[in-house]
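Supplementary Text 2. Reproducibility record for the structural model of the 331-residue chain.

All settings were left at their defaults, and a single model was retained for analysis rather than an ensemble. We include the record here because the model underlies the residue-level annotations in Supplementary Table 4.
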Amino acid sequence: MPRYLVTGGAGFVGSHAVLALLDRGDEVVVLDNLTQGHRAAVPAGATLVEADLADSGRVAEVFATWRFDAVLHFAALSLVGASMREPLHYLAENVAHSLRLADAAIKAGCLRFVLSSTAALFGDPDRVPIDEDCRIAPSNPYGDSKRMVEEGLAWAARIHGLRYAALRYFNAAGSDPAGRAGEDHDPETHLVPLAIDAALGRRPALTVFGEDYPTPDGTCIRDYVHVTDLAQAHLAALARLETHGSCRYNIGSGNGASVKEVIGAVERVSGRPVPHSMGPRRAGDPAILVAASDRLRAETGWTPQHGSLDAIVRTAWAWREAHPKGYADRG
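Retained model, structure tokens:
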């Protein structure tokens, strides 16, 4: 039975990837320090090792205890605004820890590595939809930290034979259709759960930042991809690494949705209004970010199964409504 190490497997995207692996019968060890993740998010059947990637001795012990077929690396700091306030902290956490993890994997003979990367690599893109050949120009330390990790993995591939996949994704949203996992951040910064909580009366009215962008309704457009589809993309990339060399893929639904369209979808799905007001633009917000996932689709056969915005919101709504306190509701 294949066995995989999933770092950050108690977090939002990582926990859904763990579910996908378990659903197909794989063995999973989750390594998470639980500062952002939740113990209750680790599915039954997975082994949880509560440890920090900064503890190189503990990481080496994990590789000595189990033999892994691959590493799926989700653990990272990921708030753009925080990275602008604490750039060195973000670089130390994301770059140093990721490369030490890759080094430990290589020394243990584990030569497949899937990196959770980001569309923040592209900054303000030179064209949309954004494909893998677009100019890499991060506009914040978070995006730059992922760029550095990708380049480090490229050197490991060249020198040590590591086969890696770097998956640059856009806006993960939704929740496990069976209700086994969902989105629970503190603080919450993502639009879909914020709009849902506003509709449920659990938070104040939303502020829409800018309505004068060059888009049909004046608000920013983003590419929302269902978190379960995103988990499947990681498995598709993992399978490709069995027979091919390293790869880098952009992942998205290919369909952009504006802030107002997201609000409308929440209202349709819930049957409730989403209280909101209009505010000024936020500095650095591009008007449109949409992924071109053609390469991933062509080379792996991946196709999103929850492509419509309403389908994504429907699963997110079910999770938020059933878990008003997030994973704390599970004890």
